[in-house]
């Protein structure tokens, strides 16, 4: 009995340059995908749970100056792209300011840069950089008292004043603006708690857009990596085929079919008597 032929297997090919490049591309696609998904998730969380009266606010922070005013750096408001108008991207801006002095009255105003800077020219005040962020930096500007109370000026495009927490709502328009906080009576020593926010109507759409793009990048990256890593299965090649061997030559003189048969090997006997 002969042994049954064993199947042969063709091993999967080794890693080539193309598979390595595909794997690297897949990993590189995963990095921005995770960043977009994280950013979209944070924006979606802020849009759903971090609103107060429809506004998304910065953290409340305290500001103080020994001068007569706190002013922002120039606020440059651009019209934005045609497909994302400013009203849809930012919406209505709101500033909430409260004096830290008991019973103190505070003034909040937004003015065009030219008029606001002219009013503060020669006035001792502090300029706040990066308003609304955690990296707030203040620089002092020397000078004297202002020419008059801020509420008496007519160049403010939006203003609010009084005791307690004051709210200033403003529809941002294209241009350069100045945000100013003072004591209502224009006295020195301004100390406030403040936060700023906006309705940001496009926040939800932006969040879902980031999530969608991130999911697309993630899908493409994972697909490329799977195609690069997946090994091709071994292929069954069937039973091995024995090589063909020609038959050995046969000696015809000794071959079985060359020997005389037994009947032919017996010599014939004498003829019998004739039949009677």
Describe it.
- With 276 residues, the chain is an alpha+beta fold.
- It is built from 5 helices and 15 strands.
- Strands 5, 6, 8, 9, 10, 11 and 13 form a 7-stranded mixed sheet that branches. Strands 2, 3, 4, 7, 12 and 14 form a 6-stranded antiparallel sheet that branches. The chain has a two-stranded antiparallel ribbon with strand order 1-15.
- Keywords: Membrane, Transmembrane, Transmembrane helix.
Low-confidence stretches: none
- Tell me the number of helical segments per DSSP (H or I, 4 or more residues long): 5
Radius of gyration: 47 Å
N/C terminus separation: 64 Å
Order of helices and strands: EHEEEEEHEEHEEEEEEHEH
Shape: rod-shaped
Structural class determined from secondary elements: alpha+beta
| Average of pLDDT | 79
The count of strands amounts to: 15
Helix content: 25-40%
Main beta sheet: 7 strands, mixed
Q: How big a fraction of the residues is strand?
A: 25-35%
